[in-house]
């Protein structure tokens, strides 16, 4: 009985994830889309749209467990640094979400540049390495 409940809860929890086929590549494409939306928002002066896209970046879905295990196996002790890069993107985009309606344009642009740098910082160290580990998974 207890096990059945746990199973049903798990199924209910996992079903939407499977439906959306979350994997690191899709997460990354969503990040890219939202970063482009942020840039567009600055160009057309749409702060609400900017805040929503920043929120999407800050709250991106977690890497699925199966992929996270492959990454952890490859990176070993470096996993903490990988997580740290993600954390920087998270806190910068959270700040952009919180300040998006308040800050001046130059401040927002600086924050967007910082986010882009944080994306590329992780890519320069880990992107090709992890892409080959995950290829086919
Ligand atoms: C913690 C590390 C990390 C951070 C931070 C990060 N990325 Fe990535 N990104 C990766 C890895 C690893 C891949 C390769 C994934 C793969 O090929 O399966 C990748 C791939 C990509 C790709 C290529 C996807 C494709 O179709 O091949 C894009 C676009 C991308 N990231 C955008 C972004 C953006 C935008 C940000 C910042 C908002 C960002 N990334 C932040 C690690 C990171």
From TrEMBL:
Protein name in the entry: Cytochrome C
GO molecular function annotation: electron transfer activity; heme binding; iron ion binding
Domain of life: Bacteria
GO BP annotation list: electron transport chain
InterPro entries assigned to the protein according to its UniProt record, in alphabetical order: Cyt_c/b562 (IPR010980)
